[in-house]
What does this fold into?
Amino acid sequence: MGEYPKGEWLMIYRVFLLAVTTFSRLAGSVVVFFILAKYYSVEMFGLFMYLFVFATIFTLVADYGFRVQIIKEMKGGRGNSWRIVESFLTAKHILSLSVLILALIVLWVYLENYFQFILFAVLLLSLIAHSYTLFFYYPLRALDRFEKESKASVIANISLFVFVGICVLLDGGLIAVSLIFLTIRMFTALVAWKELRQCIGCRFFGSNIRFGVKRLKTGFPYGVHVAVGVIYFNIDTLLIEYYLGKEEVGVYQAGIRIIVGLQLAADVIVNSFLTILARKRHDFSIYYESSGDLVRYLLLIGALLSLMLTMFGSDMVTLLGEDDYSDLVYYLPFMSIILVIRFYGAGVGLLLTLEDMQYYRVLSVCVALLIGIIANILFLEKYGLSAVVLVSIGTHLILTFMYYYFLPRQIKNRVFTYGELLLVLILIVHYLGVFVFNAWESGVAYFTVLIYTIIALSVKSKDVMYLKKMVFREEKQ
It folds into this structure.
């Protein structure tokens, strides 16, 4: 077994493994849905995605923001790793069991027939298993053992892609697809648990229930934020199904899956910076510098992907099927705006959490959620998916602005400088060309301008040496 990377290679190694892990999810969580959208009818795909989103809402509530909590505690050196993990794991058990029972009761009453209930139940179990997999890898991330997650994630997601593809080619139904999801997710969870237990020696039922309850109490702001955030990001799908039907859900979710796939790049950046930021929270010179670079990299890459989506979105729709998803060509350029806002918001939102200002983050999401629900109820039925997309742009802007407003002044000065302003102005010019002048193919010229802007903003002496200096300081300490 090779020696674990040190020094200047450490950060590169982390980013590489996180990139491998995250982009392998592209096969498991985006390409798979792309296959389903192409080979099933729009209505069947809409039904599958409607139930998948419903199950996701319940499952992510049980996540409770454990990722940030675990990494902050373990990086802060607050006790033995196995004690920390066992107490959080007990809290996870309590939440998962409660969510499972509640979801099955609610959906038994709500869903139309047994087929939908069985499909929902299998998807719910698969998502709960996947949430445990992610939970087991959070402590390993805190210990910088990214290679454990990377290997398992690649195998699991490629397996999911292959077996779902075979199932579709053999004309398998939605239940068969959901059972493939469940089988692979459960196997991956078992592998992840084995890796975690070998690394830190914790037990699956090791902590007293009262410690789990205590974790739920102290982590309540994180849990509320996750719950409200999940509803915020998924309520539009439920409202579309209620007002417009499952076919429109299929069209909308096909676009959202593309956004989710591109947003995986943000996960790579956020996760690679999270462990450093949590450890260097009290070393202000490194912390403030890291905060600014985190947000700048997110905005640069988010803008790049956003412009690519406006350029090549029609080609993606062609692959899905022009007849069934023709309307998506019109919506994707608007969704690209949501993408770049999400990238920037991911950075400033994480900084709020690291500043122990989680209540402000919860407040921001609640305001955006309330405005979104009211606006969709007023306009969705009359204006259709156009209203949903435009309302989503508005609420994302409100949410991100509130995140920025609540940040401490020292960090504000780092996360929106003249460089970021220049990039935003270039984006505005690009979108004016696309929407006002109907220059749908004009992205090539602005794409070139963006490349030059990235070079001008990024290739500066302090940026070239930044990661190297940060890692060396960390290793010495």
About this structure: The chain has a mean pLDDT of 82. Residues 1-218 form one domain.
